[in-house]
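User: Need the bound-state model for L-Erythrulose:
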Amino acid sequence: MNDTPESHAARATADVNRWRLGIRLEVLPGQGVIEKFERAATYGFDAVELPGRYLDDYRVDLEANLDRLALPISSVSLGFRGSLVSADPNARRLCREDTKTLLRFCRRIGAVGLVMPPVLMQDTHARLTDPGAHGNLIDAQDALILEQLPELAQAAAAADVCLLLEPVNRFETDYLKRIDHAVRLCERVGGAGLGITADFFHMQLEELSTASSLRAAGDWLGHVHVAENTRCEPGPGSLGFRPGFRALRDIGYDGYVVVECRTLSGEQDQVLPRCASYLRREMGSL
Ligand code: LER
Ligand code: MN
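Assistant: Bound-state model below.
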């Protein structure tokens, strides 16, 4: 290998930019999408993730300005009605229809895919209470979701995007909490169009080792969310991102790392640029 000081510098730059860094739209200041995306670029981010739940609040603005955005759109998270594992067939059908619409929307806006935790407790769709022949509710919900995932994975593949199943922690769901479960579902469906979102915040609560679980996800890993232990922006907390980032490097992950935080530790103009540089530093020092 060419080992000049220049090549060292080039390698260091490549490492710092190892993964494209995204930030969620709703934590960005600014009047409309143009201003918000500009602020994200100024702060040092490479892309913006859209919260699908609030799409109606900014859809017109977004559609009108798609070719004037300072950054690409990494992904869309949630935004479908119902649930694939609802006890109500109507809620499952709604979820399939909305998911297909959102997957096509992802393609149109250049996003890699749609992030889907199958059930969030904050949503009130009918939960399965009778496991029937399956013996337990997890297996019964697996059977339900596995009936529908092939059709959705096919729709995603046809749109050249991905449906990204996301395990979330026990306080937010009682179905699909761990990466190994998501891997089993992906393996049973197989093929293109399906993948996993690994969210470091949820993983600290559900996985004994974030790094080992990421390694086990391997090629199924299609998207990453990061936040601190309190779910503020990465940097001021106690989480420690390097072991997870090392695992991402080792499995050859080449997708986005999106900051999905629910709070900020300070004022946006102060903490978001600090967060982008912190994550780049962590990525660069593996
Ligand atoms: C979604 O990406 C997520 O992480 C959940 O906590 C639901 O917001
Ligand atoms: Mn997430």
